[in-house]
Amino acid sequence: MSDHYEKPNVPEQMEARTAEATGNLPGCSPASAPPAPETAEKPCSKVKSKPGTGIVKRSPDLLVNKPRACASSDPGKGARRHALPGKGSGKAETAAVKAVRNATSVTVDTSKAKTSLEALKLSIRQLKWKEFPMGRRTACDIYWHGVSFHDNENIVSGQVNKFPGMVEMLRKINLSRAVRTMQQLFPDEYNFYPRSWILPEEFQLFSTQIRLLKDSDCTMKTTFIVKPDSGSQGDGIYLIRDPADLRAISGSQVKQAVVQEYIQKPLLIDKLKFDVRLYVLVRSLDPLEIYIAKEGLSRFCTEPYQEPSQKNLSHVFMHLTNYSLNIHSGNFVHSDSCNTGSKRTFSSVLYRLASKGVDIKKVWSDIIALVIKTVIALVPELKVYYQADIPPGKPGPTCFQILGFDILLMKNLKPVLLEVNANPSMRIEHEQEVSPGVFEYVPSPVDEEVKVGVIRDTLRLMDPAQRKPPTLLGRTPEDAIIVEAGSDEKAELVGALPSLCLKPVFPKYMKQFNYLRILERIADIFLRFLGVKGTMKLGPTSFRTFIRNCKLSNSSFTMASVDILYIDITRRWAGALSDSRESGMGLQAFVEAFFFLASRRFKATPPREQVISLLELCESALEGEGHDEKTRPSKSHPALNSARVPCALNSPAATRRLQTLQPSGKGNVEAWEAEPRTSC
Ligand SMILES: Nc1ncnc2c1ncn2[C@@H]1O[C@H](COP(=O)(O)OP(=O)(O)O)[C@@H](O)[C@H]1O
Ligand SMILES: [Mg+2]
């Protein structure tokens, strides 16, 4: 999970040339285009900590003013290209600009920021906002938590940088479950996630399926990767070729883990396997708003790749791309250039591919589609967590979160999702051995540049002054500032802030993906019957009420059968979820019951149509209702009010519209919009 960024080094005069060559390359800045040959090996400036202290000393030139070899995006280059007013710009501020800035002097509680503190401090300083490192007696506008929503329990207003339940949802088992449910409905759209089995509960299934495969083809040499449920940084991961090789703990029980099909033919560069870390901002759940950072990091293995064989299965430096593992390899290449070494920018990789004729626009748009689909798979359960922690009527903050997507490119360039990190490292220092055996934290200019960019842009997007109605009209935050400030101040305000490194992708591409949001509609029904008591599980009476209000029982499906269904499914899920806090039917169990009811009722149609038909039926039965004392009050939590879902998904008319909204390019954003290359 460790991540470090390296910026390509492109002098400004190269901008036009590289922009032309790269077209729609991601990247925060013109610098994200790969370096010109003459500048490729120029070193980054290095700043070392005071020997022996371990304390990082920051050079004043790290942030602004002085151009540096690798530090050419926002803070440095941004400052050169759009000098921050009042700091070396030499430009007098107009009263209007000052007034706007004063009006938006946002307060940020950084007392729980942990390892992201350094990057956060720099971002706040650049924005000229107010930091409260020890917390504040009165409320702050923004609370920055290092780990989870619950780092500070007493927040009743403002915005927190974590969603309740995100850590839980992104554990490997839960992510696999969420994607798998979507695969049941949309197998083609969700084929970017490797086939996975959940251990220990699916051990038998896994063993049987593999045996059958091997029996049918004895030359089959499939490999599997086993990942501990809550592991990170490659810890506890191993490869196997036979179910019998699964490592047991404490006797015969296999640890909670995901065992996954191993991608045997990854794309290689310099004969090495690599993966991609991308930062994604979920700005809001309802309405759903997603941004993707235009620059990412490619992390390379340190031993040439060979397809798995019994001999090389244990070679972690060949098969696992984690920085935290490969840093310990003698072959790890620390490079100050951004297109060589064991850590490179994703844009430098893309540029290299482009030079070999690869359609990198397609690669990038496939990645955007993967990110949107993954978030869509997570949203239903996140809504349940949200309502449990901040029930309607209870004062509470709103939430946003930066996620770290780990993506592998296959040899055929198809992106594959490996995992999503709820807490991607935002450290801007890295450990360095300054003398044999002596390690110190040393500032990493490239990490600082990219991560500060992501955090600063996230803060800007969360600026309370900008929390306007969602960007349905496609207005960017810069546009929003323009509207607020009035046309006279436009130029100066836009000039005062670097362009955003975060690219809005949802609701921008809403039309192409909304048809996938079926589970969200099922979750809306679930929430409606859950009530507002801060619970996450449906009791038997509420389940009965759901059946009755949706008019789903009849002579062949009596209320007694309903109770049996409830008990049966709930028991099974209670066994599967070892960490379940309360008894009852959770959303995943409810979805299973819903799918079962759909298959019973609409026997002749394919599974997806069955579920959509049942949804229509339930939604029309519930439409206009809502006064039933046992159902959820019609005045729901503003943040979760399904009536506010932009596409008004829960009306039958909208449902019919949805069904006709067939994915033009099967969830591919390639053809939809050729974006001009932006710089920041
Ligand atoms: N299905 C897979 N096929 C091939 N390689 C994989 C697969 N899953 C993971 N890896 C490799 O293992 C590394 C660690 O896996 P990941 O799921 O990211 O767990 P962690 O949380 O430990 O980083 C990845 O960075 C990648 O190099
Ligand atoms: Mg990882």
Automatic annotation (TrEMBL):
<dbReference type="Pfam" id="PF03133">
    <property type="entry name" value="TTL"/>
</dbReference>
<protein>
    <recommendedName>
        <fullName>Tubulin polyglutamylase TTLL11</fullName>
    </recommendedName>
</protein>
<dbReference type="GO" id="GO:0070740">
    <property type="term" value="F:tubulin-glutamic acid ligase activity"/>
</dbReference>
<dbReference type="InterPro" id="IPR004344">
    <property type="entry name" value="TTL/TTLL_fam"/>
</dbReference>
<dbReference type="GO" id="GO:0036064">
    <property type="term" value="C:ciliary basal body"/>
</dbReference>
<keyword id="KW-0067">ATP-binding</keyword>
<dbReference type="GO" id="GO:0015631">
    <property type="term" value="F:tubulin binding"/>
</dbReference>
<feature type="region of interest" description="Disordered">
    <location>
        <begin position="1"/>
        <end position="92"/>
    </location>
</feature>
<feature type="region of interest" description="Disordered">
    <location>
        <begin position="661"/>
        <end position="680"/>
    </location>
</feature>
<feature type="compositionally biased region" description="Basic and acidic residues">
    <location>
        <begin position="1"/>
        <end position="18"/>
    </location>
</feature>
<keyword id="KW-0547">Nucleotide-binding</keyword>
<keyword id="KW-0436">Ligase</keyword>
<dbReference type="GO" id="GO:0005524">
    <property type="term" value="F:ATP binding"/>
</dbReference>
<dbReference type="GO" id="GO:0000226">
    <property type="term" value="P:microtubule cytoskeleton organization"/>
</dbReference>
